Description:
The structure holds two protein chains of two kinds.
Chain A: E1 2-11, E2 14-24, E3 29-33, H1 40-47, E4 53-60, E5 63-64, H2 70-75, E6 78-81, H3 93-100, H4 109-119, H5 121-125, H6 136-148, E7 154-158, H7 166-182, E8 186-191, H8 194-200, E9 203-208, E10 211-217, H9 218-223, H10 225-231
Parallel strand pairs in A: 3-8, 3-9, 6-7, 7-8
Antiparallel strand pairs in A: 1-2, 1-4, 4-5, 9-10
Helix pairs in contact in A: 3-6
Chain B: H1 4-33, E1 36-39, E2 42-45, H2 49-70, H3 74-91, H4 95-116, H5 118-127, H6 132-148, H7 157-182, H8 191-207, H9 212-234, H10 239-259, H11 261-264, E3 277-278, E4 282-283, H12 295-299, H13 306-330, H14 334-344, H15 346-351, H16 356-382, H17 392-405, H18 410-426, H19 433-448
Helix pairs in contact in B: 1-2, 2-3, 2-4, 3-4, 4-5, 7-13, 7-16, 7-17, 7-18, 8-9, 8-10, 8-16, 9-16, 13-16, 14-16, 17-18, 18-19
Amino acid sequence: MLELTDVRSFYGAIEALKGVSIEVRQGEIVALIGANGAGKSTLLMTIFGSPRVRHGSINFLGQDISRLKTHEIARLGIAQAPEGRRVFPRLTVLENLKLGAILAPPANFDRNLARAYAMFPRLQERQGQRAGTLSGGEQQMLAIARALMSEPKLLLLDEPSLGLAPLIVRQIFAAIAEINREHGTTVLLVEQNAHQALKLANRAYVLVNGRIQSTGTGAELLASDEVREAYLGGAGHH
Amino acid sequence: MLTKASRTTFLVPLRDGVLAGLVALVLAFPIVGLPTSETAHGLVLRPRIPEAIAFAVAVFLGRFALGVAEAGKPRPILLIALLVAIAAPFASAAPEFGAALAIGGLFVALRSALLAFPGVAGRISGGIRVPPVAIKRAPLVLLLLLVVLPLTPVIDRRLLDIAVLVLTYVMLGWGLNITVGLAGLLDLGYVAFFAIGAYAYALLSLTAGLSFWGALPIAGLCAAAAGLIVGGPILRLRGDYFAIVTLGFGEIVRLVAINWSSLTGGSQGIAQIPRISFFGLADFTATPDPGRRAFHELFGISFDPAHRQIFIFYVILALALAVNAFIARSRKLPLGRAWEALREDEIAAQSLGLNLQRIRLSAYAIAAAWGGFAGAFFAVRQGFISPESFSFLESAVILAIVVLGGVGSQLGVVLAAIVMIGVPELVRQLAEYRMLAFGVAMVAIMVWRPSGLISRREPSIRLGDAT
């Protein structure tokens, strides 16, 4: 479905991605783990056209998207819940969701909204409230729900667990599993919380300094000493 | 030896005062100290060194006094400052200097009074927070007042004139609010569209013989077209660069109007612009041209020159309300929401599939169209236009109305237009002090209500009417 081949991209003069090749297949949850500054977020942003790909190609459903503009890429059926959530703070929850639905057929709006509220009942309780006044967890729920309103084929999630309480993190991960299972949405998940991400993912890639260091199924990487050592806080964890 | 307390009470303010005084000296020296004046032999330098130094000393004293007041001695400072403010106009030999001292003294007195009686300060900045109900009801009350205003006996020609002027600025403020408030684009050249609309009507009516009502839509379209042509390339720019280019565009339009004399009459402007008619049915005149009817004949009333003015008032009221209705409506439509989304977060908005360029361009061009309508109205009301009316100061005033009113707030724009345009007009006899009052109003609003007179944003959807 999504295939990156030898992608290089730059932040200013710094080469953030140094030839990354990954593949996301239809219906999968793929996790991308790695330390701070490894280039995980850059990778997601590059898929969305900002920064642009300097070298290599990004293929989505048989089409090269590396030269398209951000909104054109969104139109092809990719949505993202970006790093830092980026909800529209002065707009209400419902206004945020309506903005998410711009690309979906208007006739499906009610159904999609009902789904989003069923998944995150908190959002329904807060639908008239300004998004900027929500808690971090609620904002994350809103960011994911907003992305889903466009009925994406592929959902990109950037650090959905960042800064959230463990209980909320579990809720968010349960929701991601549900999105994938119930809606058949393919998910590419970027996470620092490697343990949770690997448990959830079908497959995963480990990104180190802008390069893919290793790959495998979630279970394989969870069991790998190398990964345990580097990202799971040693062997004793869980 | 100074005690620690007196050190903070006096030494720190002393240092601040010296610093402020030095800055004032550097600024005042060329401006106040070395003025030029025009004589028969050309420009002559007339040094006023003592005055410049006196100004710097006054600044030093003012800053020092403020510092002492802030450090915990507001009451004695209040007394001294009041004495200075009262005595200065009488004591000083130079009247300007006396006036400056008096105003400075009043400022210091005001600040120390607020420090001395903190309860009052709290009430000013916090206590007069407008209750939401008042904000909700205010537009309706205001509207009713405005509708009956021309028919009440309290109104005279001058008041009606001011009301029309204020409403013109309200309309411009609301129009600019589409770009600045909703789409979050800083447009420093909005007056360009006002000018284009004005010239469009003036030229169309004089050369093609179009009436105001026929030319109005074309004037709006011309301005929108200019917005599209200019906006296309410059909306790629990031916010600050965009602001600079719009600033340039505003000036370019004015310069074109000055220099393209064959079309625009150059700096002489265009005079004898046809007056407004009663929807093309009748003219506002005592003696109508052959084949035309007069307004008073149409209604079988006696002629009164005020009729035209009252009609003009209702026209601008209707135009302004049209902008308002447009904004209120568009905020509930996907387009308006898209504007707001771009203002809040460009990256997130684009990743939801919004075309940044096209949506910005739509905001810019639509705001331009409303500016053009206002311009056509301006031309028909004045009967005369010249490039002078479309200087950068106008853009700045409109922007100030939007910012001071509270970006994105419709009612705030009305209040700001009244404060910034209406009040200075009312106190016209103060002549050159008007600009001073203008400045004081801006400073006061920025100090006490930094996010504008009304900083609430009403949600476009409420619980209850949700889908």
